[in-house]
């Protein structure tokens, strides 16, 4: 097989790092990784300098992007500012997520016009699906109010689809693993239908696009873990709290939003699985993986300090604050 070259952006992220590790297992592959230079990216990526071409730069800078655009066969574009930062700072998010994608596409059109562009989008583009949780790629894109991240993804999808490149787009379900608890925990209604995928399975899908261009070309897919990875959000949190030693999910009324988030079940998720065969984890596997990360000492510590930990978490609940302060605008966003 002729040696192929692949460009991976966002390699220091949760999914990106898994993609990098899996790409290294493919023979005859020249790998270029592009990431912003931060303490985290240096710590995670510098150890791979002898195995890949590592280039640090800014995706919003066309000169930086030009350095990575030549002679690429495959491009896996994962670089993005994600929530909650993307929603709190929409302008930088738009600059990185949307204009950064435009920069990359335009440079590839000039310097690697025959490359296959694999773009990572999000289930957030479908918006609130509490009433109708079964989602297909043909459904309208109606992001929830305040979901700036989803808007950047929709705009980026349009850039990709209108480009001169060959492409495919994967709309990722809830990717669970390596997550830090944030205020978004309370934005999601407890009765949300939740389909997850692990970072490992998600990465496997991106890596397995190599050699599958004909089956994926000019198509959009929903990427999720399938039926074995489905649960409601309340059940997911209950099991997570148990694993981390935090006891019962005991938060007051109005702590969680009642509407205007996203997530659901991918009705057509098997379409991508039937092409790439990337799934290996079930929900049971996910919880076992997470449980292995929690040492007995950490679990005991969390159990001892569960009240202050829960108090700290609750202080991040914007729905509860909106209710307490009678903030009509936010109450309208979060509650019926």
UniProtKB/TrEMBL annotation:
It catalyses: UDP-alpha-D-glucose = UDP-alpha-D-galactose. Its EC number is 5.1.3.2. Gene3D superfamilies: NAD(P)-binding Rossmann-like Domain. Pathway: Carbohydrate metabolism; galactose metabolism. GO terms for molecular function: UDP-glucose 4-epimerase activity. Residues 6-183 form the NAD-dependent epimerase/dehydratase domain. One of its GO terms (biological process) is galactose metabolic process. InterPro entries: Epimerase_deHydtase (IPR001509), NAD(P)-bd_dom_sf (IPR036291). It is an enzyme of class 5 (isomerase). GO terms for cellular component: cytosol. Its cofactor is NAD(+). Belongs to the NAD(P)-dependent epimerase/dehydratase family. This is UDP-glucose 4-epimerase.
